[in-house]
């Protein structure tokens, strides 16, 4: 009896499954959306059919199928076993997923729901989190087409105790993409010309699909001419022929070019645009230092700001030309090595200073507006946007320049005479005072050095006397008032006295006559000696002067 009891207890232990374990059962019936499963030891349980359904698939269960279920309790109030297919699948899935995670292997699953920050994925019984950043290599706006689709995932992190699994779809795509890129890149060589489809356009270029791998077509390699934006010559979806310029084996980056398949216009620049030749071009870009002009597609030259205008020196190029404007330019310099052409805009027009010199010779009278007043003179606006300058010293005959300039205001209309045109220095000198002639030159026109003239005393000073001749003032120093020292007294003269003097100097620059009574007396004495006496006669100076005076009295 003892042996029978031991065997009976052993059979109970063997046949009766433990609660909380996974047991194998057989589907004996399907009714009312449930599968009735016999789990042994005359125990049956019910499982909803949806627990046998994978996302996006129909229930795969039939009478007679053997399935594994999780035994929650041996018996409920109805005398049935409480079983779950989901829990059984979860336990099974965790075992399988832990093994795959350890081996860094891919696992199959299906996205079935959306949660904050990402999606939920069914990995065959275990639910994992798929972050939004791990869905695709590029941001996905609509994940609808991916929902319920069975596909591979990579496990990034898992914690069974917390029931936490994080997976990535992007890692699978990048891996396959890398394999595909490596295969395609392996077939390409630099210099190949291939067809591609424009996939994306950016500010700096376009990405071209070469059949599974993208290459960058930079904006500078699209055409020999200037391209402001890639959309000017390309559109998404367009098929283009490109050349492989460079392949980076490490990063798998491919650089492409379109202009390399076309003739380089710079090969014939020197022949087409010889130095000194004038051509019509289109302004393509304006900068602070000049304007770029397209001579032909792919060939641009720079008109430096200093070569834009003869007269507008400190003006922004945008004030002289505008974008897309057609202009005539002269070729000044060509550097084919640096692919640079220097152009001139002003060289296509005559030098306005040359034109002025031809049409306004020295002595011509001109009229213009006072453009500027400086400490050294007036700037007068003339024709062809050029200025002439009236120096302080050329404003007035009578006043000092600093005084005379006070009579002028900006905007005044002024007449003047051209006194000099320096084409090389781009300088025109004018004179206002020359309009009335030179009163000094007119006054002393017949006077020469050594001439005897009659002057009128206008002022008595301690150092001499001031005199006037034909409206011109001069000063006779005390030492020049007489040959005799005793007579060198200014007070012996009175204002209004007429005095004969000798001209000792004519200074046109200072506009002064050098005058001397003493020099006149000495000259008269010398003349008397020569006329009335000789060195051999023995006559005294008094005798000679007396004879001279008697001769004058006859």
TrEMBL record:
Signal peptide: none annotated. GO terms for cellular component: cytosolic small ribosomal subunit. SMART domains: S1 (SM00316). GO terms for molecular function: mRNA binding; structural constituent of ribosome. GO terms for biological process: translation. The keyword Kinase does not apply. It comes from the Bacteria. Pfam families: S1. Keywords: Repeat, Ribonucleoprotein, Ribosomal protein, RNA-binding. Residues 20-86, 104-170, 191-259, 276-346, 363-433, 450-518 form the S1 motif domain. The keyword Ribosomal protein applies. Gene3D superfamilies: Nucleic acid-binding proteins. Binds mRNA; thus facilitating recognition of the initiation point. It is needed to translate mRNA with a short Shine-Dalgarno (SD) purine-rich sequence. Belongs to the bacterial ribosomal protein bS1 family. This is 30S ribosomal protein S1. It comes from Rhodovulum steppense.
């Amino acid at each position: 009896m003892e042996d029978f009891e031991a065997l009976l207890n052993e059979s109970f232990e063997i046949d009766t499954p433990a609660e909380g374990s996974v047991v194998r059962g057989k589907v004996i019936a399907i009714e009312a959306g449930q599968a009735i499963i016999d789990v042994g030891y005359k125990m049956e349980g019910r499982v909803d059919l949806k627990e046998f359904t994978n996302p996006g698939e129909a229930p795969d269960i039939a009478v007679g199928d053997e399935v594994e279920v999780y035994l929650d309790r041996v018996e409920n109030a109805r005398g049935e076993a409480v079983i779950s297919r989901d829990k059984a699948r979860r336990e099974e899935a965790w075992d399988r997923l832990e093994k795959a995670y350890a081996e860094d292997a891919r696992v199959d699953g299906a996205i079935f729901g959306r949660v904050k920050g990402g999606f939920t994925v069914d990995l065959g019984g275990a639910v994992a989190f798929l972050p939004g950043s791990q869905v695709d290599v590029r941001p996905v706006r609509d994940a609808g087409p991916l929902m319920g689709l069975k596909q591979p995932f990579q496990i990034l992190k898992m914690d069974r105790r917390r029931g936490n699994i994080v997976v990535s779809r992007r890692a699978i795509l990048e891996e396959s993409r890398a394999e595909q890129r490596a295969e395609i890149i392996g077939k390409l060589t630099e210099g190949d010309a291939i067809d591609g489809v424009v996939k994306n356009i950016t500010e700096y270029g376009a990405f071209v699909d070469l059949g599974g791998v993208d290459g960058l077509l930079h904006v500078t390699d699209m055409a020999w001419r200037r391209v402001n934006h890639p959309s000017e010559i390309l559109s998404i979806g367009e098929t283009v022929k490109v050349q492989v310029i460079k392949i980076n084996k490490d990063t798998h980056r491919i650089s492409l070019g379109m202009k390399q398949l076309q003739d380089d216009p710079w090969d014939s620049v020197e022949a087409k645009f010889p130095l000194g030749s004038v051509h019509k071009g289109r302004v393509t870009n304006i900068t602070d230092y000049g304007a770029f002009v397209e001579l032909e597609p792919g060939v641009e030259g720079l008109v430096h700001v200093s070569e834009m205008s003869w007269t507008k020196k400190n003006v922004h190029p945008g004030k002289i030309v505008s974008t897309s404007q057609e202009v005539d330019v002269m070729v000044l310099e060509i550097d084919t090595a640096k692919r640079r052409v220097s152009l001139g805009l002003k060289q296509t027009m005559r030098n306005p200073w040359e034109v002025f010199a031809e049409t306004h010779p020295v002595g011509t009278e001109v009229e213009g507006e006072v453009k500027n007043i400086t400490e050294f003179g007036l700037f007068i606006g003339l024709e062809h946007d050029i200025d002439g300058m009236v120096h302080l010293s050329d404003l007035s005959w009578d006043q000092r320049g600093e005084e005379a300039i006070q009579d002028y205001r900006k905007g005044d209309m002024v007449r003047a005479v051209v006194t000099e045109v320096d084409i090389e220095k781009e300088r025109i000198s004018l004179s206002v005072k020359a309009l009335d002639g030179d009163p000094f030159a007119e006054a002393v026109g017949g006077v020469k050095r050594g001439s005897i003239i009659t002057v009128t005393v206008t002022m008595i000073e301690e150092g001499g006397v001031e005199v006037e001749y034909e409206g011109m003032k001069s000063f006779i120093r005390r030492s020049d008032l007489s040959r005799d020292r005793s007579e060198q007294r200014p007070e012996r003269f009175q204002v209004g006295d007429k005095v004969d003097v000798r001209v000792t100097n004519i200074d046109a620059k200072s506009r002064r006559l050098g005058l001397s009574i003493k020099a006149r007396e000495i000259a008269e004495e010398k003349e008397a000696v020569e006329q009335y006496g000789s060195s051999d006669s023995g006559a005294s100076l008094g005798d000679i002067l007396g004879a001279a005076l008697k001769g004058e009295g006859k």
